Structure formats: C-alpha cells, structure tokens
Amino acid sequence: MATSMHLCGVRTSGLALNSKRIEFGSKGLNFSALVFTRNINHPRRNTRALRVTCEAGRVELLERKDSETFKLNRSEKKLTCVMKFGGSSVASAERMKQVANLILSFPDEKPVVVLSAMAKTTNKLLMAGEKAVRCGVTNVDTIEELSIIKELHIRTAHELGVGTAVIAEGLEQLLKGIAMMKELTLRTRDYLVSFGECMSTRLFAAYLNKIGHKARQYDAFEMGIITTDDFTNADILEATYPAVSKRLLGDWSKENAVPVVTGFLGKGWRSCAVTTLGRGGSDLTATTIGKALGLREIQVWKDVDGVLTCDPNIYCGAQPVPHLTFDEAAELAYFGAQVLHPLSMRPAREGNIPVRVKNSYNPTAPGTVITRSRDMSKAVLTSIVLKRNVTMLDITSTRMLGQYGFLAKVFSTFEKLGISVDVVATSEVSISLTLDPSKFCSKELIQQELDHVVEELEKIAIVNLLQQRSIISLIGNVQRSSFILEKGFRVLRTNGINVQMISQGASKVNISLIVNDDEAEHCVKALHSAFFETGAASESASTYIVASS
Ligand SMILES: Nc1ncnc2c1ncn2[C@@H]1O[C@H](COP(=O)(O)OP(=O)(O)O)[C@@H](O)[C@H]1O
Ligand SMILES: N[C@@H](CC(=O)OP(=O)(O)O)C(=O)O
Q1: Beta strand 355-359 with 323-325: parallel, antiparallel or unpaired?
Q2: How far apart are CA 413 and CA 308, in angstroms?
Q3: What residue segments make up the domains of the chain, in order of their start?
Q4: CA-CA distance, 438 to 211, in Å (whole number)?
Q5: Pure H helices in 115-169
Q6: pLDDT by residue (tens digit) across 263-299?
Q7: Where is it mostly found (predicted)?
Q8: Whole-number Å distance between alpha carbons of 215 and 255
Q9: What span, in angstroms and rounded, lies between the C-alpha atoms of 153 and 119?
Q10: What pLDDT score does 224 carry?
Q11: Which of 113, 121, 122 best tests ligand 2's pocket when mutated (most atoms within 8 Å of CB)?
C-alpha cells in the first residue's frame, strides 16, 4: 500500500497516498507545500489535503484534513475587505495608532487599507500652490502652509517612531517650479495634492511594519488605477480592474503584507501623469479596489456614525441611517452629502459588494450598510440633503405651443458648452433647470460661462437667470411621494417658504425642491424635525403613514 512521491526533487516516503495536486509556498530547497491527495486503495474517499514543510530535505507533515475543511482554513489568508480611512481618521499620530489598533482588532479580516491625506493637508497643499504662483521662487520656503504640512508630517513620523525619509522632499521643489512658471495648471495641481496621500500611506505602512504587522505601501498611480486625463476630476477606466487585481493579488500570494494604498489618485491613460478623482475621491478608490478583487465588503471609516439623516453641520440632531440602497446612497452623494464621493457607489453596485460606513472614533456604533436592495415596506424618508449656491435657469420658448425640438435645442446647447445640468422640470414651452457652479471649470470663469450660456439660449428662448438657490433633496421611498410631498409642503407653508421648482427624478429615490439659499438651512431643520423627530424616525414614521393612508 505504501507509495512515495517527489516534491521539488525531494523524495518523500511513507505517505500512503497518491498525489493529485501540489501548490508551493516558496522557492528553493526550503519550502512548504499543500498536497491534495487521494487514497489509491479507496478512490471514492474524500480528497485529503496535507500541509507539509520541507527544510534541508526533511519533509514534515503539519496538517492533514479533508480538503473542504482545508479550503476554509486557506481562505483565511485571502484578502477579505477594503478598509478606507478618511483624512479625519488619520489626522495625527495618535489617530494613526488607533486606526492600526482598529485594523488589528479584526484578526479575521485581511484588509486592503486605503488612506486619504492627513486632515486638511489637501487644502493646505492647494493653498501653498496658489501662494507659490504669486510669491516668487526665493520666497517659497516662507509659505506658511508648506511649513505646517512639513511640521505635521515630521512630528507624526517622530511620534510613530518611524523615519522621516518618508516625507517627500520633492514638495518644496515642485512649489519652486510653480513659482518659477507663475502658473498652477490642473495637471500640476493633481501632482501637488498627491503628496498628501503619498505621505500618509508611507507613514502608516512604516508604522504597521514597526509594530510587527507586515505592510506594503502602494501609490495608486503605480498600482493600476488608470483614469481619463481629466485632471482634478478624472474618471476610472475599465482597464483598472484587471490591472489592480493582478498587482495586488500577485503580491499578496508572494507575501501576506497588508496593502496600504493611496486613495484619491490615479494615472492618466494618455498622459501617464498623476490624476485625482475629485475631492473626497478616496471613497471611489476603495470601491474600485473592492470590485477589482471581488472582496466581501468595503468599509469606509469616517468621523460620523454612518450616513446621517442630514448634514450634522446643519443640524446636530441628525441621526444615523442603518440601511441604504446603492441608488439612495448614490443620489444622496450626488446631491451634495459630503459623506460619500458622488461616483463611489458605481463600482460597489456593479460588483454587488456591500459598503459599510463606520465611525473610526466610535467603532462599536453599527454604522450604515449600503446594499443593492433593502426592505422598503416601512421606509419613507431616509435623509435630507442640501446643495447650496446653485444657479437656476427659467427658459421659455419664443415659439408657439406645439413646436417640436425645443428641449433638444436647449440640451444641445449645454452639451456644446460642456455644462452638466442637475435638476430639470419642463412644460411644453418652458424648462426650469439648475446648474452646479462647482462643476464649472474655474471659479473665476463662472460668471463668464453663465453669460455665455444665456447668450446662446437667448437665440431660441427668453432666459431668466436666478442665482443663490439651493436644492433640497428628499431621499427615500418615492413610492410614498404623495405622503412626503403633503407633509413636506405643509412644513414649508407653515414656515412661509415658497418652493420655486420641484422635480421627482426617474431614480424613484429622490424628490428635489428648489428654494432661496438664505432659506435653505431653516427648511432642512424644519423638514428634519417633521420627518424624523415628531413621533419617530423615518422607518417608524411609516407606521403612522400606513395607518393614516
Ligand atoms: N448626510 C450626512 N451624513 C453623514 N455625514 C455628513 C452628511 N452630510 C455631510 N456630512 C459630513 O461629512 C463628513 C464626513 O465626510 P468626509 O469629511 O469626507 O470624511 P472623511 O474625510 O473621513 O472621509 C462628516 O464629518 C459630516 O460633517
Ligand atoms: N484628500 C482628498 C481625498 C479624500 O478622499 O479625502 P477624505 O477621505 O478626507 O474626504 C481630499 O481631501 O479630497
């Protein structure tokens, strides 16, 4: 019955089994191997898996299990989730240590860690860039923001007990280059802000290694995140998914070192230059990696207890929302809830990977889980979102009723000018719509661009431009729109607020109301109080609705 087999030229004997498949753990004479075997005398019996190790020719049997059991154990070694920590979560050495402890407190998780720049660093880098344009090469080292950034990162390195070599020296050189050129192009802006994420990830990976937890730092632009060349607002390209998967899984299979990846950054496919994914883009990096690797879960760790019923900066009584669908979260993010990047839900939805929004300052809070679907039977309103400083256009056709092609002409004007429209309401001869100035190409050009839009549209219509408006988006179960509108309008009437436009999008999760900027915060508070506080939160408010409808 006894048979023998050869592993890498090392003869092993005494294993009464027939080798079916061998997987090697490392190279050379010293190796470990998984041997999947079947007993040749009892071929119908379960495949067995043996973990063997060989040192200097001596093979030792470590484990022998049914291959199913073994698979379970082996899967522990697979990357399981993405953990993304935003700037507020890695704001200091103390915070980085807490984040490291938090990661280590989930021994069953093998995460890919995605980090943003340390809090406020991105804004300070941009400010330093703006100052460099004006201050002259010799004065670059007097830029206050440069000193603050350097001081923060050097102090953090000292407090973490890691070397300061990870602090990018190139930053000062770059600022001198900007000072010399006297201009800050979008491409240079992206390169400039990339220093933030490059430094935070190097510090954190060095700290994990220092405390004995093997980690490996990755710059997203060297790791396969491939984007369009739209600097400051680049879009992820499909080629990213196989590239990221190949790189991360390939490295992981060689060495189980926690990948620590820069959020927010990519590499333009034509320019090969560093690009950024728009402010808050690290969320999108996290969901992209989650989809690329087909992971079980994507966690985004913030400084709030999940997605809240409204912006806590507007109203401190905002409460966490336990469950959202990808559609609700996408709509919420698109219409201005700063908590998630507007495009971050797309990869998660495509890969059907749950996203969990958690609080790194309060890890035991349940947070918000975002999935493809949820029980909507009791849901009414989920969250109220405010987007300020939007521009509204009332466009009335100069032609008579029954003319076709009016809408097409209006929208082709926006297409031609490359301006995106947010909310639309139409009648046969008029259109009201909103434009988001933050999406215009430059703040200085906003008025110029708006004048140009009006000029173009006036060729076919009478145009009324209304600025300083806000969009209040009511995110929730639009199947109950009559109830939401009835209750919402009652609140607004009581508060003397006039709604200037209303739109219920095809998404079925959003009703948008346009009001004046100076009334908007008050509206949000009043609506929040009516929907989430009088009687109960949204879910239980539906009990009242069901009973009263
Ligand atoms: N509906 C909302 N729910 C939760 N947070 C919100 C909401 N609207 C705005 N915020 C703001 O978003 C912040 C979290 O987003 P962000 O600053 O991007 O986090 P991080 O930098 O940690 O990724 C919160 O501190 C909060 O002030
Ligand atoms: N640091 C970038 C990217 C980012 O995602 O940051 P945060 O996760 O802190 O929002 C920014 O400030 O936009």
Answers
A1: unpaired
A2: 37
A3: 4-75, 81-118+196-302
A4: 43
A5: 121-135, 144-160
A6: 999 999 999 999 999 999 999 999 999 999 999 999 9
A7: plastid
A8: 10
A9: 11
A10: 97
A11: 122
Please give the Cα distance from 101 to 96 (Å, whole number). Answer: 9
Mapping DSSP to helix (H, G, I), strand (E, B) and coil, where does residue 241 land? helix
Minimal-distance CA residue to ligand 2 atom 10: 280
Measured in degrees and rounded to the nearest 5, phi and psi for residue 105 equal -75, -5
User: Three-state SS for 207?
Assistant: helix
Q: Cβ contacts of residue 395 below 8 Å, gap of 6+?
A: 410, 430, 431, 432, 433, 457, 461, 462, 463, 464
What ipTM was predicted for this assembly?
0.98
Determine which residue's CA is closest to atom 8 belonging to ligand 1: 311
Query: Does the structure show a pLDDT above 80 at 333?
Result: yes
The owner of tokens 């979560």 is 89
**Pocket around ligand 1: residues whose beta carbon is below 6 Å from it?**
86-89, 116, 280, 302-304, 307-308, 310-313, 337-339, 383
Residue 75, C-beta contacts closer than 8 angstroms, at least 6 positions apart: none
- The pair of structure tokens assigned to 289 is 């990696």
Instruction: Find tokens 């002409």 and name the residue.
Output: 409
Ligand nearest 332 Cα, by number? 1
Q: Percent of the chain having pLDDT more than 90?
A: 63
In the reported structure, the alpha carbon of residue 302 is separated from the centroid of ligand 1 by a whole-number distance in angstroms of 7
CA of 122 to the centre of ligand 1 (A): 16
